[in-house]
Design goal:
It is a single chain. The protein is mainly alpha-helical. Among the domains are: 9-48 and 56-118 and 127-139, no CATH class; 142-258; 376-407. The protein has 20 helices and three strands. A three-stranded antiparallel β-sheet has the order 1-3-2. Strand 2 and strand 3 (359-365) form a beta hairpin. GO terms for molecular function: translation initiation factor activity. Residues 184-367 form the PCI domain. It is found in: Cytoplasm.
Length: 408
């Protein structure tokens, strides 16, 4: 796909008459000479500048009329090569944008119609569709609200063919565009929701979840829409096996706004608590899991991994006995190694198992949240490292002094 970047210009060569005849020639290329002549004749008459008429280049009203009649005849991509199709639509876009003010109803009407024609074309020539629409996106000033409709068309084309990867979407780009486009907050939310839905349809739930956070943040926190979206976001985060960081959810006002809901209580357990608290919650709220299609067994697996990560975080640089891990996870000692392997695969803990000492040496671990308790733990480790380094420096200094005395 052509790069979607900042605004660029599309230049059209030739006189206005030559450009219109070029567009007409493309539209009628597969018609008979007789049909072509009958089709082009009215346009040729309209282009003539007879007695009492302004030259066509100076007659904006006549140019607008000719263009409006021509646009009605654009009903698909046409039968040209990719280069010809791209050139045809680039020239159409250039005429529309040059004839009408950027925010005029006519520009919106004509471009919306062309975008629909392009996206609904049955042609499988996806690459040229992407390029044509991308060219239009890049032609429009970066603050224009029209960019929203253009990019929604790109999203629609990609989604229809399960080719979202072609767009190379990134959160920084989306956030940048939404900060630039002169559109309403409601339109921003709708656009973000369309991206979420596109990734859900493409079976990319983790990426969809990332955009869900942006979507929830874009909504008025106290609205019912925001609260429903917040609950959905919580359920997705709990359901996805790769999501272990729940801090971003707690930073959303809409999520805090559902603090009286059972799912919020469950979310707090996954942020700060362990297996016993989860078991207690589950015994009272099994219907909530059913309502939000969350597997209790998968949650239990997830909370054990988080419990082990928290335990490991408290013992970084130390050997953690199998017995202590088994006690925390409420499993048999024989199952400990399996759980350690799982938590390492999940990227929550780094360490080395020792069957000889029946322990796990923790080299690194991820904290579930970073608050006062975690800062205290970090401070203790830094003090210990500082003390250790000071001891090493003392040893080195003593060795240097002793070495100097021997030399003397």
């Amino acid at each position: 796909m052509a790069n979607v970047t900042d605004s660029v210009s599309i230049f059209a060569e030739g006189t206005y008459e030559e450009q219109i005849l070029e567009l007409l020639s493309y539209i009628t290329r597969n018609r008979s000479d007789e049909e072509r002549g009958a089709f082009v004749a009215p346009f040729q008459n309209a282009l003539k500048s007879g007695e009492g008429k302004k030259p066509i280049e100076e007659d904006v009203t006549r140019r607008k009329l000719i263009l409006s009649k021509l646009l009605v005849e654009v009903r698909g991509l046409g039968d040209g090569s990719d280069k010809e199709i791209e050139g045809f639509f680039n020239l159409l876009f250039a005429h529309i944008i040059s004839l009408y003010p950027q925010n005029s109803p006519e520009v919106k009407q004509y471009l919306t119609s062309l975008l629909k024609t392009i996206s609904s074309s049955h042609s499988d020539r996806l690459s040229v569709k992407y390029r044509v629409v991308s060219n239009l996106f890049n032609t429009i000033p970066r603050t224009s609200p029209l960019r929203l409709a253009v990019y929604q068309t790109l999203l629609q084309i990609a989604t229809s063919k399960n080719e979202l990867n072609v767009l190379e979407l990134t959160k920084p780009d989306i956030e940048k565009w939404l900060s630039e486009w002169e559109i309403s907050d409601e339109e921003k939310s709708t656009f973000l929701k369309s991206i979420v839905d596109a990734y859900v349809q493409a079976d990319e739930p983790t990426i969809a979840y990332d955009y869900t956070l942006l979507y929830v943040r874009s909504l008025p926190p106290s609205s019912k829409e925001a609260q429903d979206a917040a609950l959905d976001a919580i359920s997705v985060a709990l359901r996805l096996p790769t999501i272990f960081d729940f801090d971003p959810l707690f930073k959303l006002d809409a999520v805090v706004g559902v603090k009286n809901h059972e799912l919020f209580a469950l979310l707090q357990i996954f942020l700060n608590s362990g297996l016993p608290e989860f078991v207690t919650w589950q015994s009272k709220n099994s219907q909530t899991l059913e309502q939000y299609h969350i597997s209790a067994s998968e949650l239990e697996h997830k909370i054990r991994l988080l419990t082990l990560a928290s335990l490991a975080f408290q013992h970084i640089g130390q050997n953690l006995p199998y017995s202590k891990i088994a006690e925390a996870l409420q499993v048999e000692p024989s199952e400990v190694e399996k759980w350690v392997i799982d938590v390492i695969r999940a990227g929550l803990v780094w360490g080395k198992l020792s069957q000889t000492t029946q322990s796990l040496h923790i080299s690194r671990a991820t904290s579930r949240s970073f608050e006062h308790e975690q800062w205290q733990a970090l401070e203790k480790r830094l003090v210990a490292w500082k003390t250790g380094l000071a001891g090493i420096l003392d040893v080195v200094a003593t060795a240097k002094r002793q070495g100097g005395q021997v030399a003397a």
